[in-house]
Amino acid sequence: MPAFAPDFHWGVATAGHQVEGDNTDSDIWFLENTTPSLFQERSGPACRNYERWADDLDIVEALGLSAYRFSVEWSRIEPARGEVSPGALDHYERIVDGCLARGLAPLVTFNHFVSPHWFSAAGSWLQGDAAALFADQCARVMDRFGDRIALAVTFNEPNLEQFLHSSGRLPAFVEGIKADMLAAAAARAGTDRYFAGNVIPAALQAEFQEAQTRAHLSAKAAIKSRKGDLPVGLSIAIADEVAVPGGEERRDAKRAVAYDHWLRLASDDDFIGVQNYERIVHGPGGEVVPEGPVNGMGTVIEPDSLAGAVRYAHEVSGVPVLVTEHGIQSDDDTQRAAFTPAALDGLASEIASGVPVLGYCHWTLMDNFEWIFGYGPKLGLFSVDRTTFERTPKPSASVYEEYVRGARSN
């Protein structure tokens, strides 16, 4: 096995709304409980991680990992505009200190799609002072425990909607349901418009890109003003886009729409976060579907997709890569157990060829709330009983643990 650097971050990734439960002051909670709703289920108690976080950190430590990626939920910290909850800040500070006590580097995401309800009811990222409001949130988090975190991710996948639309992954009727849900949410909130970070009308994608770019820059400035040497970046959803002869133009057009703005923006950051789950093959007439077993997303399982996505992200951005998410949606854990080490071998080869990679975070620690799809998709190393919330390791957890222990011992 090619050697990874001794300070390589071996981790798992989670996100607050998807695991904590009862995030009642958030925009996603509001949309889940709006009629009509694009969300197939309500998040409800999620995985009870807000109460069970210490046990979950024990699990991460027992896996032999060295990093834990999680998000601080703005809606808990500032449930109403200008009203800051010391208790919520205390909670996330305990998680940071809990990580450090277990030898885990805290990798903190400042916005993992979810924002306060009051923020989204006022226009979300399109309101005039959105960047300043987000910078204030980042500043208060940094002032509390920023001196103890290892890496800061401002935004999680701000390109998600661009990625989905350019990939043709969303049926046309979804856009209509989305519009109806957002209109109903605005009416219910008594405002003119309502959006969320991963629920953006197609016609407004360019405006959101510009607004979230400003917010990223403002957030980075606020973070750096508190700790200048803290590595700061953002993460993007990125497939491994490859072309068979004649498909190069289509591939490049997809890259230009879904990735390149964010990769160029990252050229002034300390790293770019890569979140990869699949390979997409472009031919002269459209997407080509190779033969082979498929994942839950309907694309052929290709472990080398991670290496390709990392390589392209670094080529365009010119900065080191942090794999902030990588995994496979599958009910068959034997697929995950085979997929993960094969993908990591490919990542090791990219590192050996000179691509700087800071770390790898598997998505995800446990099966959780997967946004509009509810609790159906399975991506966790652990299953979660929906009644008792007991975590049960899958065979893939041991496979990942063994790989990491081998890599860290070399």
Condensed summary:
The protein contains 15 helices and 13 strands. It has 410 residues and is α/β, with parallel strands linked by helices.
Biggest beta sheet attributes: 8 strands, parallel, barrel
Beta-strand percent range: 15-25%
| SSE succession | EHHHEHHEHHEHHHEEHHEEEHEHEEEH
Q: What is the CA-based Rg, rounded?
A: 20 Å
Molecular structure report:
The mean pLDDT is 97. The termini are close together. 43% of the residues lie in helices and 16% in strands. It has 15 helices and 13 strands. The strands form 3 sheets. It has an 8-stranded parallel β-barrel. A 3-stranded mixed β-sheet has the order 6-8-9. It is globular. It has 410 residues and is an alpha/beta fold. Strand 10 (321-326), helix 14 and strand 11 form a beta-alpha-beta unit. Helix 14 (333-352) runs parallel beside helix 15 (395-409).
